[in-house]
Amino acid sequence: MPHMSVLPENLFTAVQVRELERRAIEDARIPEGTLMQRAGEAAWQQLKLQWPGAERVLILCGTGNNAGDGYVLADRALRERLKVTVITLGDRLRLPQAASAARGIFLKTGGKEQGFEGRLPAADVIVDALLGIGLDRALGGEWLKLVKEVNASQMPVLSIDIPSGLNADTGMEMGAAIRADLTVTYIALKAGLFTGSGPECSGLLRFDNLEAPSNLYGSLVPRARRLRSAAMRETALPRRRRDAHKGDYGKLLIVGGDHGMGGAVRLAAEAALRSGAGLVSVATQAAHVTGFLSGLPEAMVHGVGSVDDLKPLLEKATVVAVGPGLG
C-alpha cells in the first residue's frame, strides 16, 4: 500500500511540482507508470476508507496524466467487483503514454467508457480525474458543463491531486471548480490547495509522496510554508522581564482609517496589542479618536490631518503598518 503521510509544511508551485516529478522519474529512476500506479492505488485506498460501503463508482477522466490515475483507480475498482462507470472528455489520442497504458489495462480488464451526455448517472462516489495542476485558463464548453453538473449532483466527490478547475498556484477558480469532499494529492503540496477557494474546493486533504526520495526536494525553495501549531509553540514569544516597559518591545505606528472606515485600523491596533507589540500608536482621522479611546484605551491614538502631522510619529516608530481602512 502506498505511503500516506501527514501533511508536509512546504507548499510548492505547479512548475516546482513538475520539476519534482521529473526528478523522481529521471534522477530517482522511478518509471512514470509506477508513479501513476502508486497514485491510483493511494486514491483507491482513501476511497475505501472514506466510503467503505460504496458499490457504484463514477470516474471522470480528461486527457492528461490525471486521467491515468483515474484509470488505475477504475481498474482497481473493477477488479473488486464494483460497478464502474467511466466518463471521458477530450481526445483520447492526446493521452500521455503512461496514461494511455493505464487506460489500455482498464479496457483489457473489461472496463468500458462513455462520453458526457449532459447528465451524470447515479453513483455512490464520483472520482474527479479530469484536470491536473497545469490548468492556466478558464474552463469553457463541455468541461465547464461537466464541472457544474458534478457540483449540482450532490454526490460525494474524491478529487485526484487537485479539484478540477482550481488553479494550483493561487487557489482561484478558473471559471468554476469541482467542490470535492476529499482530495488526495501527490509528490508535494500545491499552494493553491491552501489559498483562495482551495480549502473550500478540496474538502479533506490527504497527501502521498509516492515514495519519492526526500533528497529530491532539497534545492527547491518552497513558495510558502504551512503554519503548524507545533511550530507556533516553538517560536512563541519569550518570557518578558517583570520590570519591562511596553516601550522595550518595539514602537508600532499604524496609519489608516479613512472616513467611515475607522473599524479597520481599530482591529489592526487590537491585533497588534494582542500579539505582543510594545507601544502601539495609531494615526487616523480625528473623528475616530473618541471611539478609539473608549474601546481601546491602551493604544496611543492621534488625529492626523496632514503629512506634517504624521512626520513626528514616523520618526518615533520602529515599525510602520500602512493601509487598514485607507481604501
Question: Can you describe what's shown?
Answer:
This protein is α/β, with parallel strands linked by helices and 327 residues long. Helix content is 35%, strand content 19%. The protein is elongated and about 80 Å long. Helix 2 (32-50) packs across helix 4. Helix 4 links the parallel strand 4 and strand 5. The mean pLDDT is 92.
Cα gyration radius (Å)? 26 Å
Q: Which oligomeric state applies?
A: single chain
Number of helices: 10
Q: Which bin fits the share of residues in helices? A: 25-40%
Question: Would you count the extended β strands for me?
Answer: 15
Measured distance between first and last alpha carbons: 53 Å
**Class from secondary-structure proportions:** alpha/beta
Q: Could you give a short account of the major beta sheet?
A: 8 strands, mixed
Along the chain, the helix and strand elements come as EEHHEHEHEEHEEEHEEHEHEHEHE
Summary of the model, kept short:
With 327 residues, the protein is of the alpha/beta class.
Task: Name its key features.
single chain, 327 residues, alpha/beta, eight-stranded mixed sheet, four-stranded parallel sheet, 10 helices, 15 strands, elongated
